[in-house]
């Protein structure tokens, strides 16, 4: 009897396994059905964008092919439903008759490029500034804090609109890039320049709390250098807010690129982005609403999916979450 009880206790103890914070967060995230579906949509969209040439080749569509014979004198496709068929799954763009699906796929590549590079640069700057200010405090924190306040006081949108043309011209004069390449550099630089202050505030508050924890005090008592404390003790404990901010910043910068391209201060034709497609759809919205609805719906779907993933990650990484 005693041996049976011991074996039962041993088997029960063997079934109890410890979970790391990462495993707990993943378990919470899997329980969020909306977050899982949104993550699946986001991954599919990213893969379609990344492999746009392969997808277009498989479907037999070409973003540069003009189907002028299928467009009437007013620029509207003559085929039913805007040309939606097996040959053109989402129809044709008015005016020049290009395949809409191919243009959406190729246009998303530039939009995602701007969004990812801007997010990475803004997160990197905000992380460094927040850690330095929160850890060293004193005058360094005061100077960085006042500079952050100064940037937050600027109307970023109007600054980008006002400086777009002179800054793009200056980039072209230096020979760094020409045409749309200069406009991409301008958008990435200015969006990230005005995007990091908010994140640095979040990082600073986290570092101010972490630097008072026992593991940091123990590292200091053992003679660990500041470099080791920052990179080995503080940064590994900041990955949760970084992941959440990244997931929420990507859709914001994706929509921002579309807005600036729509206003004519971002990427310009003949390149294609979702903002340019929306601008073209605006001119035909009354006579050909399919074009506008499909383009705007695609942008809304992608931005919404990324936002829902960010919300799900925030709930999963929150230790006080009930999910």
Automatic annotation (TrEMBL):
Gene Ontology BP terms: transmembrane transport
Transmembrane segments: 37-60, 110-136, 143-164, 184-203, 238-267, 287-310
Topological relation to the membrane, as annotated: Multi-pass membrane protein
Protein name stated in the entry: Peptide/nickel transport system permease protein
Signal sequence interval, chain numbering: none
UniProt cross-references to CDD domains, sorted A to Z: TM_PBP2 (cd06261)
Domain of life: Bacteria
Predominant cellular place of this UniProt entry's protein: membrane
UniProt similarity note: Belongs to the binding-protein-dependent transport system permease family.
Compartmental location: Cell membrane
UniProtKB keywords: Cell membrane, Membrane, Transmembrane, Transmembrane helix, Transport
